Amino acid sequence: MIFEPNNSTDIISLIPLASAGFVFILGIFVFLSNWRATLNRIFFFYSISITIWFFGTYKMFFACENAETAMFWDRFIYIGVIFIPSISYHFSIAFANLRRQRKFVFLGYLISIVFLFFIKNPLFTDKLFVYKWGCHTIAGPLHNVFLVLFFVGIIALFANIYIKIKQAKEKIEKIQARYAFTALLILSFGALGFLPAYKIAIFPIAYFSGLICAIILAYAILRHHLFEIRVIAAELLTFAIWFVLLIRLLLENNWQNRIIDGMLLVLIIFFGLLLIRSVIKEIEQKDNLEKLTLKLEAANERLKQLDEAKSEFLSIASHQLRTPLTTIKGVTSMLLEEFWGKLNE
User: Fold this and answer.
1) What are the backbone dihedrals phi and psi of residue 129, each rounded to the nearest 5 degrees, phi first?
2) DSSP letter (8 states) at residue 201
3) Each residue of 89-113: pLDDT tens digit?
4) Residue 237 lies in a domain
5) Alpha-carbon distance 57 to 289, whole Å?
6) Which domain covers residue 76, as residue numbers?
7) Which residues form a coiled coil (predicted)?
8) pTM for the model
9) Which of these, 88, 81, 209, lies nearest to 147 by C-alpha position?
10) Are 248 and 268 in contact (CB under 8 A)?
11) Is residue 166 part of a domain?
């Protein structure tokens, strides 16, 4: 069946493009919120891989009529997809704090890099399968090996997140681990995107899994911020404005208006990040002030206890000192009064 773009296809094709923009912005936001945190940096690279996947999918919607162009963009997609299992596994290691498995993280990235060099090799993918909803390169022998390793990595990361759920002592850690498990479970449905590579026609819903996974993972990473209603309001409002402006930019046909919308989007992103960071900073200052207040109250209570202990000590000490002095005074008085008889010189 020959793929023929139509109005509904154009609308569908905008979904991966909008998703690519959303995931990329989300990755930048998570990175800027705390770039020193390992999880945030891993998530940023994960968002780049997903963005490459989504953007390549968007371009393929309009390239199926030209086999050479379609194969180029399909292989472009694999640049991001090949790194998804290794990045996801790395995320699970960092999230569960499993230091013993760090050597496997390096191995995972090494395998991804090796496959990266085989993207254009006919043994990986060759020729083009065109179907009702799009097109896909046909899998070769090396693609089968990649698929096996892909699922091995997915199973390993699920095992690591499950370990985190079982070992987590704090309630917040368990909640975050469950979010991560759910997100990665949804991501695993992205494997449906490999079916056209084996000439199995399926509606291109796989990229929805990457979008939903990115949103849930970002929520899990930033959950300590999202407990505050002001941060929730600021983030939701900012994301909503970003998304609306992005859709407006994509649907605009006039290049002059598109440039204006693009500049406006950049400004809104900048000021949106400033707004969220200022709200977070204000809440952190409030939390620090509350902690200092509690420490001062505890110190004040301790001072009261020390003051009471001092008073009790002085009372006991004065009593102990007064008792022998009274005894000595009484005996001396009795001696002077010759109570026991006249004293000898």
Assistant:
1) -105, 115
2) -
3) 898 888 888 888 888 888 889 999 9
4) no
5) 49
6) 7-227
7) 282-316
8) 0.64
9) 81
10) no
11) yes
